[in-house]
Amino acid sequence: MTPTAVVHAFAVNVRRLTMSLAALSGYGFYIMSSLAFTLLFPPLMFLFIWNPPLQSNLASAVYRAYCYFLTRVYLPALRIYRIIEESGFEGLAPDAPFIFVANHRSRIDGPMLIPLLPATGIIIKSSYARLPLFRAMVRYLDFISVEPHSVDSLADALQQCKNLLAKNKRLLIFPEGTRSGNARLNSFKELAFRLSMETSTPVVPVIVHSGLPFMTKISGSYFPGRRFTFVIRALAPQHGRTGERPSDFADRIRKMMAETIRQLDCGTVWEKLPVRRSNERLRRTSSASISIQPSYSSNSRPHEEPL
């Protein structure tokens, strides 16, 4: 190896080690804070049992502050990522109900969106709601648990969602139902779109996009090889059309979101990942096998940066 190659390999290894230590620090904080939240949150809420509205507002404020600190302060301070765009939310009426539907590649998608969505309930799977941390959220926050394969559970969740919207609150739903295991946007469940059409509530498509796979189902994504960037973009509110079925509405919104994601994927590792296989090994972007060239379309932005 030439001296230049040796220096480059050393720099790459140092960068990987630095990012791994930063990621471990981030996960350590997340685990400890989740444990503290699980132990301290219920007793704190019990102190305000005499005033349910105050209890609900306090619970929401505490959780939003935690998500803000985690995703906007702590993880960026570790230089794991930085957020380069948060757009489309400023034009939404603050007191009007909306149904936000977001793509779901990463475990951090929810915490990323919470600080941007006040007075918003979240649909979660019943398997999560059985965990102590999420059980507290279902009890004290506007988290709605649903069993996807139960008709009764879906009907109950639909009614709870209608009750929230009637109070001019909002909903966040991940219509794929689970994290996607590759670069492809999975098919959408109908719940959000049926709810929209039955209550005349607009659907706001939301894109959460990272320049590198991070906390996804792709092997290796929990320890990114370099600092990357996030884009969080709300698209224009959409309504169901006359004669359109919920499934057609869902498919139309999915295609709209898929096109935006395709543009953002341009020039990133996502563009090189296989679409169909979910267990593909994630290669480090710093390796010679994946060399991202700085060529972007007019509608895309660079999402990777050196340390």
**SSE pattern, N- to C-terminal:** HHEEHEHHEHEHEEH
**CATH architect. name:** 3-Layer(aba) Sandwich
Mean pLDDT score:
84
Low-pLDDT stretches: 277-307
What's the gyration radius in Å? 20 Å
Shape verdict: globular
CATH topology: Glycerol-3-phosphate (1)-acyltransferase
Q: Structural class of the secondary structure composition?
A: alpha/beta
**Name of the level-1 CATH class:** Alpha Beta
Strands ordered across the widest β-sheet: 1-7-6-2-5-3-4
The CA-CA distance between the termini, in Å, is 24 Å
What are the main properties of this structure?
single chain, about 300 residues, alpha/beta, Glycerol-3-phosphate (1)-acyltransferase, seven-stranded mixed sheet, 7 strands, about 15% strand, disordered C terminus
Description:
The protein is of the alpha/beta class and 307 residues long. The protein has a single domain, classed as Glycerol-3-phosphate (1)-acyltransferase, CATH 3.40.1130. Helix content is 43%, strand content 13%. The protein has a seven-stranded mixed beta sheet with strand order 1-7-6-2-5-3-4, with helices on both faces. It is globular. Mean pLDDT is 84; it is low at 277-307.
